[in-house]
Amino acid sequence: MPSSIFINQLYRPPSSSSPETLPSPNTGVRAFHQSLPGYKPSPLVSVPAIAARQGIRWCLVKDETERLGLPAFKILGASWATYRALGERLGLRENGDVVSLQRLAEAAKAEGVVLFAATDGNHGRAVARMAGYLGVGARIYVPSLLDEEAISKIRGEGAEVVVYDGDYDQTVLATKVAAENHAEGKGVLISDTALTVDDETANWIVEGYQTMFDEMEEQVLEITGTRTITHVVTPVGVGSLTQAVVTHFQRTPRSPKPMVIAVEPKSAACLKASLEAGEMTSVKTEYTICTGMCCGTLSAIGWPMLKSGISAAVAVEDSDVDTATKNLQSCGINAGPCGAASLAALESLSSGEELALGPQSVVVLLCTEGRRGYEMRSNSQPEP
């Protein structure tokens, strides 16, 4: 069996990259999020017990278990991408900026817009929440393996849910076709994965995650007294969040730059497979408790940056993620499997020169999802 940890030999330290080639941060993103109902920064939580166990100086958890009233970070990208996509679609711009959400809602309702999205759970629910804010329809496609709890919560946002007989990658393609063929071209696809490198909406998803990092920079300084971060551990899925992490740290002036460590479930490790192959590679996915990371193909816009911006990729077992959820919950962090995967990855790493983990390390774990029900299965257990 291949190693569960892949050290990326193509990794290029961000200090030697060319920041001028990266998009500048959009200062309007955080201001937009602050205008949404219930905005507040998600906590950055110091967990000294885990730091001591791992032999590092600081272990800090960016706790995204509650974000804008939803149990995951996804609303950051979905809200901004919806806002931008509809603004472009409806031609609503004033002085170069998209107009207010209220005026956008009025125009979208008058146009009869319906939002489309493919999801393993949290992204689709976030798009449905935005449809509710705007008063427009939402049609969310989900793969057949998605659990009933996640489906029920998406329906609870007022969206129509279409269960597609296929895996996540197949569902993404089906959703794109459905949006394009919707009545009189009124379907608007809000996808967090890009099928082509010129996908503007997927880029807006990535851009929307910047709010998380703006908050984190302020919080690290407040907690530790410095801006130092040596390692960031991030869940992958299709790679949009991971792309946002790499983008942020490559263009943020700091020295040294943190290493970015990616984590995926072993049953859906498309980034690790791509790094091992040296080219973007799809994998066949199997059941995992990390439902939101059960993705077999990376976003097309993410791979060019991830192939040289990731220090290491870690593939974790569901059993280790299950243990990590309990460990975080004992520290007061109400994590679900996708959120706890970052801790599972950290706990699988040993100190050493390759990843420079040691007594002076300041590690930030991105905990991207709140607690939810799930079913532990063995890999040999047949799919329903």
From TrEMBL:
Q: Which GO terms describe its molecular function?
A: lyase activity
Name of the molecule in the record: Diaminopropionate ammonia-lyase family protein
Q: Is the keyword Acyltransferase in the record?
A: no
Q: Which domain of life is it from?
A: Eukaryota
**What start and end residues bound the annotated signal peptide?**
none
Nucleus is among the record's keywords: no
The scientific name of the source species is Mollisia scopiformis (Conifer needle endophyte fungus)
Which positions fall inside the Tryptophan synthase beta chain-like PALP domain?
Answer: 37-367
Which InterPro entries does the annotation name?
TrpB-like_PALP, TrpB-like_PALP_sf
Q: Which Pfam families does the record cross-reference, listed alphabetically? A: PALP
Question: Which keywords appear in this protein's UniProt record, sorted alphabetically?
Answer: Lyase
